[in-house]
Amino acid sequence: MNFDFTEVLETIMMSEVEHFDIRTVTMGINLRDCSDRNINVVTQKIYEKIVQYAGNHVKNAEAIETTYGIRIANKRVAVTPVSFIGDSFTTEEYVKIAESLDKAALEIGIDYIGGYSALVQKGMTPGEENFIKSIPLALSTTKKVCSSVNIGSTKAGINIDAVKMMAQVIKDTAYITRDNQSIGCAKLVVFCNAVEDNPFIAGAFHGITEGNATLNVGVSGPGVVLEALKNYRGSSIQDIAEVIKKTAFKITRAGELIGRKVAEKDGVEFGIVDISLAPTPAEGDSIADILKEIGLEDVGAPGTTAALAMLNDSVKKGGLMASSSVGGLSGAFIPVSEDQGMIAAAEKGHLTIEKLEAMTAVCSVGLDMVAIPGDTPVNTIAGIIADEAAIGLINEKTTACRLIPAYGLGVGESVDYGGLLGKAPIMPVKMLSSDVFFNRGGKIPAPVRSLTN
Amino acid sequence: MKISEELIREITYKVINDLGAEATHDKVREGVEKELAAIQTVPGNPEKFEGKVLVTSFGLNKPGIVARITGTLAEMDIDLQDITQRIMQDFYTLIMIIDITSSPKNLKEIQEALQKVADELNIKIYVQHEDIFRYMFRI
Description:
The complex is a heterodimer.
Chain A: H1 5-16, E1 22-29, H2 39-54, H3 57-68, E2 72-79, H4 82-85, H5 91-108, E3 112-119, H6 126-141, E4 145-153, E5 157-159, H7 160-176, E6 188-192, E7 213-219, H8 222-230, H9 237-266, E8 269-274, H10 287-294, H11 304-322, H12 340-347, H13 353-360, E9 366-373, H14 378-395, E10 399-406, E11 414-418, E12 422-425, H15 435-440, E13 443-444
Parallel strand pairs in A: 1-2, 2-3, 3-4, 4-6, 7-8, 9-10
Antiparallel strand pairs in A: 1-7, 4-5, 5-13, 6-10, 11-12
Helix pairs in contact in A: 2-5, 3-9, 5-6, 6-7, 7-14, 8-9, 8-10, 9-11
Chain B: H1 5-19, H2 25-40, E1 53-60, H3 65-75, E2 79-88, E3 91-99, H4 107-121, E4 124-129, H5 131-137
Antiparallel strand pairs in B: 1-3, 1-4, 2-3
């Protein structure tokens, strides 16, 4: 037989017991050819193009799941940042675009559509300003639309005016979706150094330098890494780094195969594999549990950042060997609400926003799904965003904030969305004022790239 | 999916030219739809299954498991190409390589038929394309 008995069983165990799945197959679709002066023409063109290209996306992905026996958790679409399509539109007209995206997403049966986005790291056009103002309403009137705004980059610096605006948008979104535990905020990301081929929601968009349509795939597999590490208790750190590399290799290979096959069936170009460890709220599918298995009493213990750095680096090394087209965010995600172990650590007070911030300096992708008190002032939210962006700015990496200032709730309470979004305990925020800093306005200039201490 | 706007435009021009003076709105629409339907049902377009399939089964050992599985495969005209089995205490693990190209059934139907066997015998049966096993462990 050409197949190794243990390898075949290992593959089946991974998907059956250890929660291995392909987290998402995301089709990126260019919408730049949908522009027009008339908003009704634009929304019709957008709807038609998405249905034309991704109409069978869910069906095709399901067929590939059946053939290979590997689950694909999410089938999604990302589109060109919407602000590029309609720079002349009003706030109300942008909301209509969001509604047409939502309608298309419902029609083709995907779970989320990303790309209600703008890139304003250097400056903002009047159209982009209208667009940003439309986000709270757009997120409250749609179900499947996700939004992201890039407010900084290593090449351009940080647009503090945009940071302030986004802090206000986050507050407004929390308020306008208050009847639903401020869920709008779970669909809104503020980026520094956003990437153009990220398949993960809520930050996915089809980059402006991409082709007409591509298929990007995001892998998962914290459960697989955790199970592998359980066999190496007492081994040295180099040894477990090696185990993580080997595991990442296998899951990335599976991701590449599945991604290429779905792309082939969809009839679009294959883009990239995002080699990420993305947790789910399922028991055992947790980054926090991996850190504990490595040897920390809980996430937040001294040594957490070091262990996470090793984990993240090993995942990349293994994944890079496995795929010829790695891209996206590629790193271990630490969303608080989507990871059983992180939720527990936050509830016990072991994990604070400050420690999370340090952790995001060495992994993907930022303060993700972090719930904070609903009465947190706008400038304090701006401060959290700017701090996170500064880490990305100086380290030439992507960082992001998906903050939920849960309306009417405070520390000790939590928001619980169920499903993949999970449950986020509200974490305390330092109530020291940043008002004077943010009232200055302006931009943080692009940083120097030498003298890197 | 592969049908682009340019193609539709091309077909429309062709239909209009063919109809000549008789080209009315309805007739052109009818003609274009016919042409498009013809393209979509080109024989061989319903994709052909390539490569082999692995059937993996495990569970509590008892008489007749291999017989039931292979019997079901035979009913569906499936060629069994290799079989390996291991017994560990009360449990068995079984891997078969099968070729389904000669079968009138598609992979999904084969999976369903074997799932029925699995449910009856209270065992696990997985039916997967071989590539997933090749890809994960080999460069």
